[in-house]
Automatic annotation (TrEMBL):
Species assigned in the record: Candidatus Halomonas stercoripullorum
Protein name as annotated: Coenzyme A biosynthesis bifunctional protein CoaBC
Keyword Magnesium set for record: yes
Cofactor remark from the record: Binds 1 FMN per subunit.
Domain Flavoprotein: 2-169
Entry-linked Pfam families: DFP (PF04127), Flavoprotein (PF02441)
Residues covered by region (Phosphopantothenoylcysteine decarboxylase): 1-197
DNA/pantothenate metabolism flavoprotein C-terminal domain mapped to chain residues: 194-410
InterPro entries recorded: CoaB-like_sf, CoaBC, DNA/pantothenate-metab_flavo_C, Flavin_trans-like, Flavoprotein
Length: 419
């Protein structure tokens, strides 16, 4: 295990991570960026791993022992914790301007990163772009999680705790091998969603009218976040494409924040090409303002009304079911239908029209269920290799409903015809 440490306050947690990796039986070599050394001394890591810590690309003495290319080949897994916004940007661009970035470029090892940064930096579109780009390049991102930050802000950007990273490693492939021994010394049961990548949209979208106003809806994100938490517990690699909500990221889930339907569409399409199961739980605005005003729209004293021209947003899940990869396949696609009447007939219509594999229809006019509530009920309709099916799921906590939805989707996935 090559443990890369970059310049974040969370670097102090890397010492504990190195200790846990050693305890789990990993051979650990540490590479630190120049900035990381301002947060934690290389000597600490050297004492914990029993190996000299590498910090420089151009160090003749270290190169004489094990050259950087050799080190890149030596690693089965590169684990970077913490990964800063700057490091993510450099890796996304393929820049090799220090030892750590050079090793990442030269290595064919499994690559995992636990990002850590200020919440605004994490939410910034550039960082989100880089996160998506790294995932596309094969990086697995663990976290970050939401919470109070060292700088006093609250939000997403906290590095996962070392114990949580170890638990994540235990569900991953080759890196997990040794870590798993520490967690499950006796028995290694295969989790039902292990090896699957599941992408889930959640929450509302916001469609700007002017710099201070937007069109949106009452989605809180609870249903989508429950699905993400359950899918992760079942062993899947989960990416949550989230509209603006105030929920913490479920442990182990990679979250990409978006605002508008157009942004959600672009991110979803990118992820759909690499996932096995796509769940569209977000309440996506069907329309957006044709031309959001550059400045705040002023109230007209001489007119009683205001006319807004709206145009159609792209239909995310319909576009995904229309996608085909080189082998003619696409992910199994689950859509939702939020209705206030004629639940079954509208749901069947959406299942057909959007060419979905499964639909979760919920009546959002029922008191205490649906938007913003902690409970929900649904009618599931699906098509799989065995034909068509349906099931009524009674009112229950969203978390339990999520489990039933994922269980059914996994069962269908196993019998689905090749698309
Ligand atoms: O977030 P919560 O407060 O927990 O509430 C959960 C929920 C009520 C939002 C959720 O259970 C739900 O019903 N989500 C879907 C809401 C919705 O937009 O439904 P719809 O019937 O308008 O859309 C049908 C499907 O098409 C949905 O899967 C939607 O994600 C998708 N869609 C819609 C429009 C669009 N432009 N692109 C889409 O992909």
């Amino acid at each position: 295990m090559l443990l890369g440490i970059s310049a974040g306050i969370a670097a102090y947690k890397s010492a504990q991570l190195a200790r846990l990796l050693k305890q789990a039986g990993c051979e650990v070599r540490v590479v630190m960026t120049e900035g990381a050394q301002a947060f934690i001394a290389p000597l600490t890591l050297q004492a914990l791993t029993g190996e000299a810590v590498r910090t420089s690309l151009l160090d003749p003495e270290a190169e004489a022992g094990m050259g950087h290319i050799e080190l890149a080949r030596w690693a089965d897994t590169i684990l970077i914790a913490p990964g800063t916004a700057d490091l993510m940007a450099r890796l996304a661009l393929g820049i090799a301007d220090d030892l750590l970035t050079t090793l990442c470029l030269a290595s064919e090892a499994e690559r995992i990163m636990a990002p850590a940064m200020n919440q605004a930096m994490w939410r910034h579109p550039a960082t989100q772009r880089n996160a998506a780009c790294l995932q596309q390049d094969g990086w697995r991102l663990l976290g970050p999680e939401s919470g109070e930050q060292a700088c006093g802000d609250t939000g997403p950007g906290r590095m996962l705790e070392p114990e949580a990273i170890m638990a994540e490693l235990a569900t991953l492939s080759s890196a997990a091998h040794l870590a798993r021994q520490a967690h499950e010394p006796e028995q290694q049961t295969q989790l039902p969603a292990q090896g699957l990548h599941i992408a889930i949209t959640a929450g509302p979208t916001r469609e700007p009218l002017d710099p201070v106003r937007y069109l949106s809806n009452h989605s809180s994100g609870k249903m989508g976040y429950a699905l993400a938490a359950v899918a992760t517990e079942l062993g899947a690699q989960v990416t949550l494409i989230s509209g603006p909500v105030s929920l913490p990221t479920p442990e182990g889930v990679t979250r990409i924040d978006v605002e508008t339907a157009v942004e959600m569409h672009a991110t979803s399409r990118r992820l759909a090409s690499e996932c096995d199961l796509f769940i569209g739980c977000a309440a996506v605005a069907d329309y957006r303002a044709e031309a959001p005003a550059e400045h705040k729209i002023k109230k007209r004293v001489d007119e009683d009304g205001l006319t807004l021209k709206l145009i159609k947003n792209p239909d995310i899940i319909a576009d995904i079911t229309a996608m085909r990869d080189a082998a003619g396949g696409r992910p199994f696609v689950v859509g939702f239908a939020a209705e206030t009447r004629d639940l079954e007939s509208y749901a069947r219509d959406k299942l057909e029209r959007k060419r979905l594999d499964m639909i979760v229809a919920n009546n959002v006019a029922t008191q205490g269920l649906g938007f913003g509530a902690d409970h929900n009920a649904a009618l599931l309709l699906w098509r799989d290799g065995d034909g068509e099916g349906g099931e009524d799921l009674p009112p229950q906590p969203k978390r339990e409903l999520a489990r039933m939805i994922i269980d059914r989707a996994l069962a269908c996935l196993n019998t689905r015809p090749v698309h």
